[in-house]
Amino acid sequence: MLGRPKPGDSEEDLLRYQDRFLASGGEPGVQVVRRPDKRRGEPRTRTPAGETELGATRDIVSMDEFPEQPPPLTPALPQKKSRFRSDRVRFEKDDPAERLDREDPHLTAVLSRIIEHDTSAVPVSFPAFTGAPFPKVFHRSEVKEQQASVPRRSIFAQNIAARTANVVSEPSQNDAPAGITGQKLAPPLSEKMQAHQTDSNPSFGAPLGGGAPRLVSGQGLGGPGGLTAARQIHLENEAWLRGMSKAEILQEQGRLLAQLDPRLISFVKSKKSKDVLGPARSQEDGGTEGQMDTQTEPTLSDTEEGPIDMDSDTEGRDKESEPPITVEDLPVKPQEGWVHMNQLEPEKLEWIKDLPKPRKRGTRQAMQARFDFSGSLIPPEADLPPHLGLHHHGEEPQLAGYSLQELFHLSRSQVTRQRSLALTTLARILHKARSGHFASSLRGSVLSTLLDAGLLFLLRFSLDDSVGGVMAAAVHALWALLVAPDDEECLDSTFSWLQGSTTFPLLPSEKPEEDEEEEGEEEEGVKVAAEKKEERRADHDVARTDLIKALLKMQVLARLRYILEVVRPGPRVVQDVLEVLTRIARHSSASASQVLDAPRLMQTILSEFLPCSWTPHPPAPPGGPLTLETAHGLPVAAAMKLVRVLACSGRHACARLLNSLGLRERLSRYLALEPQDLLLEPREAVRLSTEALRLWSIAAGYGQACDLYRELYPILVRALQCVPSLVTPPDPEEPLHTLSLHRAEALVSLLTNITLTAGSEEELQREQTRNPESDSPPPPPVEWSHVTGLRPFLVGSLKSCVGGLSDPLLREGAQRLSTAILLYLGSFYTQLPAQSSFQPVHSLQEMESLSSEVLEPLLSHQAVRSMMSELRSCSALCNPNSCSPGPESIPSLPCLSCCGGKPALSLAGSQSPFPLLTGLCYLLHAMASTHRGLAGKFSPLLLSEAVIGYLRSCCEATPPLSLSSGWLLRHEYHLQYLLLKLAARLIPVHAAVSQHASLYHQVVLAMLPRLLPGSEHLAHDLLSTLTFNPDFIPEGRCGGPEAADLNQLLHLKESHSDPSPLPASQPDPSPSSSPSSSLGALLREAYSHLPSLRSCYLTHLSQLEPLVLRSRESYLGCTPFVQSQLLPPLSGPALPSDWPFLPLVTLYERAGQAESRGCAVETLPPASVESAVRCLQWLLVLELWREGGGKAVSPAAKLCRLACLFLCGSDLFLEPPVQRYGWAVLRSLCSPPQLAALDLGFPGSPPPGLASFQDLYSTLLAQFEAVSFGDPLFGCFLLIPLQRRFSAELRLAVFGEHVGLLRSLGVTLAQLPVPLQLFTSPPEDSLSLLQLYFRALVMGALRRAWCPVLYTVAISHLNTFLFSQEPAPQKVDTARRGLLRKTYFLTDEVLRTHLLLFKLPRGDSELGFEMYEQLPPIRDKRLSTVLGRDGGAV
Fold first, then answer.
1. How would residue 429 be classed by pLDDT, with cut points 50, 70 and 90?
2. pTM
3. How far is it, in rounded angstroms, from Cα 763 to Cα 703?
4. Exposure b/e, 944-978, CB count within 10 A at least 16 = b
5. Could you report the per-residue pLDDT of 659-688, keeping only the tens digit for each?
6. Of 532, 649, 672, 671, whose CA–CA distance to 597 is shortest?
7. Nearest Cα residue to 1223 out of 1398, 1079, 1032, 1041
8. Which of 134, 774, 1068, 1099 is most buried by its number of CB atoms within 10 A?
9. Buried b vs exposed e over 745-784: b needs ≥16 C-beta within 10 Å?
């Protein structure tokens, strides 16, 4: 045991005790524990006391009373320690120095080879000895004043520089004999000549021709030898460059640019630019440049091939070549008394110099767009004079014009004129962009760019500006953003067409994204929840999806009312505000309601811009336009149009305008006088009168304001008598001719709606008498006797218009008036039979007279025949590009894309044949409904080759659905519908027309899924009268079933007689081939049940009844029941495109709803089975007799809809009639054209209406395992998606998760409706699937007796894989060899023989494939090689 020190021991005793303790190797009683430093990461591993990391022992003395570290001598701040340093990822052998070198792109990454300079000749100076204990303090009085040319430095820096110069000069005088000299050596003459040479690579400043370096100056080396060392390094670099080729120089330059820090490259460029400013600037800066000569040597030309610079410095060299500004260059010489003008500052005087001329760039790279004050795009190379005011101090001052970013910046200026100028320029840019001026010159959308930058919020903030000019500019910019004048003009021109006053709301098609956190919330009312969610959305989120809704959310209506009521701006601003409000009202019925409900807005508009009395304006100066200082107090046509658009939003809004806001009195005031008597500007007066007539027409379309008809009847008759006089050649000196035509059209449209309202008076009167408490509207104040006297005037006007069609100068006006008059006569004869005063004999004679005197000559007129020939060229259906969205169309602000107006020969053009032919067909349909004998006289219209060709083109067209095309297609569908209705009357009585019955039926089938919202009545009428009409399906009575039987027999004969390995494989798949199940018999039975098919489909479309009733009231002219002239939103077609599968889909949905409630569907009721059979019958008729009628549904979508047959219940597909028609429909879907177009869309986009085809297929597999009982029809349906060209995931689902169904999937090769080669070719490349094939065969899950089709498929793919000798990855090759070896050693001889001797698939053989008698030599060699390599022998 070791002894312990005693109190009396000396220091030697203590050292002796320590030596003994260390020699014994015992554990110390006290151990030094050092606190780990948080900034150094984890503490190091402790070492035993007294032992260092190198293993050496050391003496350790610890004292408890003293700290481990000595106290600091001076107080210091505590070091900051990082708490997160220990959490950083570190490696054991991670050297910080290496990490710094690896990650820091420093200059040392390039200058890795550093050679120390020779310091043997550097003078050594010692500090001067003084008697003072401390250095002498500098005093300001001892410092010499700096010269103006010397850069400003601090006092301390000046004294240090002076002392350094003195110290360097002393050794040069005293220690010269020792060889240490401090004398500055003058550079040789060659170096002087090379001082300002330009190198071949100016980016790095290393001239090939010698000279001083630009980057390395030698100042940091200290002493006079620094310049010499730097020059020596420079000469070595030049020698290296001379020994390198140009390719090597370019390669090395690229490597340096990739390694160096971009900031270092920028420093190099700035160094170069400073060095080439010129000798005058260099001498002014002082330094060693003053000793260099200014002579230069010739440099490499820019056109010579050499090292490529990092950037194009042409512009920079132009700037550098310009001489600096001197005092003599100043336009005004500074004088001595001027403050702060004694020193010239060139950098601040650069802006007064002349701008450099813009150079034409040879690059095709995109450049920033610049605009002038008119909104026009300025070419980049345009050299515009500065006096235009387009040059400014921006990023590129030499370029004229303003970019969008600069205009945004200018719009926030404190100067009023600048803000106004910026907003006005933005308005003009917007107007030109929406007109398509920049479509070919700019990349991207100007409108989208501005909106993404926040243009909407900028305009909203500018509306709140207190300066009137800025406010007016903001209103005009908002008008340019929202309003499309061409769209409004097109809508006005189609107002008098059939259903022309009804329009789609201009709602965005994209719905706002739903918040994920609110998906699970359940609130009391869906509408209340939607309103709350909309209120919580931010303005910028709303603006991203709907600009109009965002403006309403930002209270723009209140601001516009303030501008009109308080600010009282000029006529231009008033016009812009009214048109902006009109665009907001067209957005939706909710937006129109907000405009109506805005406090004092409509009252201000009606009192200020639609007054009942006003002061006449002063006459216009001779030869000049009329200029008004204010529009307040005068009637404005734009205000009347705003009221008309608001009235279109609903009958209640119209009644509110007429009664509460006093529009009825204003209509009387404006229509009681002729336009020239309104004491307004002539154009404005005609526009005001036209808009008043259109507003009255809208009100009459609701059955309102008809009492004014009796009051203004003489005025209306007088205006009607003037209509024939408008069919005259337009006078160039009379600019009101076109406006007068529009007014006449509006007048006839008004009379049409009044006639329709009068026609419903007797019915409403009878309803009120029979049931006084009913909810039906009251009878209108106008009766049928009030309108019967209008017909003679309009018939006479129609004769004048027909006569004017022969003159090309009169054709446009005559065509427009004829359309309106034909629609009036059609409405008149539609309502005539329902009146009590109807006299059949007299009325029929009138119709015959009208037909013989007007309509038949009109049909045979050359102008009408030319119109028929122009149907296809003007059709929006046959020419989708004519109605495609414009280049500046954005989803948040939909428009009709009528920028620049529609061409004359287009559907909405001035020479369009559609309005006149639609009006003519409307009148013919109305007359033929009453006088059936007249229908045969109108057959030339249907037998025209131009009309037949147009209908064929419509069947083949695939129109896109958008707002820009929907409003045009709707008018085109009206013409097609009327042609079909006329054909329905002529087919039973006219043999020539009946020959085209199949074409008309194809048009019906193609038209049904295209009809748009608001046309539900047309769809219902087509389904009720034409779709299932036997007259439109002549195949049922003209040999169609017999032809189907013959075709089936030919396929049977071909499949049994063709010995080729590629059979047609189209035999009768039904297990029991009986005469009753032949294809012809099935078609004959389906044709006989057409009335039942009609009833079935109408029943399943009963959910559309409210929409059908609303649409019917509008189309049949039941004006008292019309709720709105605004159509439903254009969200899709009125009928689903897959409507033929609707009964099956409905049954599937009902079964799903029952299962969700926990009620398993075992057996369906007989009515459901009958619905399924009717659906299959109609599908069979469509697939065999109307192949073009099903183009709207893809083959994949048909297959998915047909899958509902097996998911509706447990035994529906087992019903005998379902089996018969199911086989027939499945066989028709497996025809070669259908199979070629079949695309299941997995794993990409799924078929339409389906989220995932794999999920549907997994459901079918589970259903087959549960309830199929091995049904071959169900099995064939499962086999179709297993074709080789479809995704391997589907086959993996069968052989992986549902391998048990292979026992019951007993579809024979004869029953398979698809060629077997589609399953076996090309060879399978999925290794996992091949292994599953082999596993299923070996384990006995897949047998030929159970599943012959998939057995043949598996044998074929495995045989091809086993004997394939194509190069493959190691994993695949190993698996191939292993499977071949396992196949050879199989104990099942039959399976082994099939796998080894398989030759090729053959559907007509007993096995389903052919076999070799013995292995071919190449396969036998392959087998021997694999077995021999594995250690076996053949």
1. very high
2. 0.76
3. 14
4. bebbeebbbebbebebeebbbbbbbbbbbbbbbbb
5. 999 999 999 999 999 999 998 999 999 999
6. 649
7. 1079
8. 1068
9. bbbbbbbbbbbbbbbbbbebeebeeeeeeeeebebbbbbb
